TrEMBL record:
PROSITE patterns: PROKAR_LIPOPROTEIN, SBP_BACTERIAL_3
Gene3D superfamilies per the UniProt record, alphabetical: Periplasmic binding protein-like II
Family label: Belongs to the bacterial solute-binding protein 3 family.
Source organism superkingdom: Bacteria
Record's protein name: Glutamate ABC transporter substrate-binding protein
Residues of the signal peptide: 1-22
């Protein structure tokens, strides 16, 4: 009788242990997405929270934009469903550190590929070729950078975009620095400034907002080449190769063009063709 009691107790302990193990597997949080596939884990992806059309956190907590769509597609190819993605705000100055600390697995945040950054991170892509451009009112006569002489040109404090236009094309332009692009766009709407400059993709995203639709246009200038890549931790070749393969598939199956049309179409954004993976346009 005593032997039967011990056996029953052992069985109960064994059942409890198996149950705990199963629960542990279900609640696994692979927060940096280090696994080769989603399974029961999650993947953290760095994006911008404040760029309409690219990476925007909506009032209801959801996320929208071209970078978000690209990141979601890539994550799917890596084995993660949308509900397994955790989007993390990744500000420009902290992108390299976020990857080095394993805060995120990949970053899709208007991350232009350049030689200095490539010393610290690896880049998949590029997945979009953007250009520095001007956003002006629909009826504006500004069509060339030189037309900005004597006009008020806005960009964000700390950005080199407006200074580059001033130095290279329009030395008599009146530079106005605001704290964010939202303020620049509001200034353009009110007439406080005559043009806003930064990447055309960013400008198109702002102009496509419902409150601005039909009010602005892109000048269509190509004042620089900005090759957007997906940042991957330096040396993580396995992830890099998988992300590149995902980007190639996104282009071939039409999902890339659909994402461009959905996010930039309302601003009349004339995008470049999808860039080839590994080809950087200087």
């Amino acid at each position: 009788m005593k032997l039967r009691k011990v056996t029953a107790a052992s069985a109960a302990v064994l059942a409890l242990a198996l149950s705990a193990t199963a629960c542990g597997g279900d609640s696994k949080d692979d927060s940096s997405g280090s696994g080769s596939s989603g399974g029961g884990g999650k993947i953290k992806i760095g994006i911008k929270y404040d760029q309409p059309g690219l990476g925007l956190k909506e009032p209801d907590g959801s996320f929208s934009g071209f970078d978000v769509d690209v990141a979601t597609y890539v994550a799917k190819q890596l084995g993660y469903e949308p509900n397994q993605i955790e989007f993390v705000e990744t500000k420009s100055a902290d992108r390299e550190n976020a990857l080095a600390r394993d805060d995120v697995k990949i970053i899709a945040a208007t991350y232009s590929i350049n030689d200095e950054r490539k010393k610290k991170v690896d880049f998949a892509g590029p997945y979009l070729l953007a250009h520095q451009d001007l956003l002006v009112k629909k009826d504006s006569k500004i069509s060339e950078a030189t037309d900005l002489n004597g006009e008020k040109l806005c960009s964000v404090t700390g950005s080199t975009s407006a200074q580059n236009v001033h130095d290279d094309f329009a030395p008599k332009a009146q530079l106005r620095e605001y704290s964010g692009y939202s303020e620049c766009i509001a200034g353009l709407q009110s007439g406080a400034v005559d043009a806003v400059t930064t990447d055309d993709s960013i400008l198109a995203g702002f102009a496509a907002q419902d409150k601005y639709k039909g009010q602005f246009k892109l000048a269509g200038l190509k004042l620089s080449n900005e090759n957007y890549g997906i940042g991957v931790k330096k040396g993580d070749t396995a992830t890099l190769n998988k992300v590149n393969a995902a980007l190639e598939k996104m282009v071939s199956d039409g999902s890339w063009q659909k994402a461009v049309d959905d996010n930039f179409g309302p601003a009349g954004y004339k995008n470049e063709p999808a860039p080839k993976v590994g080809v950087i346009v200087k």
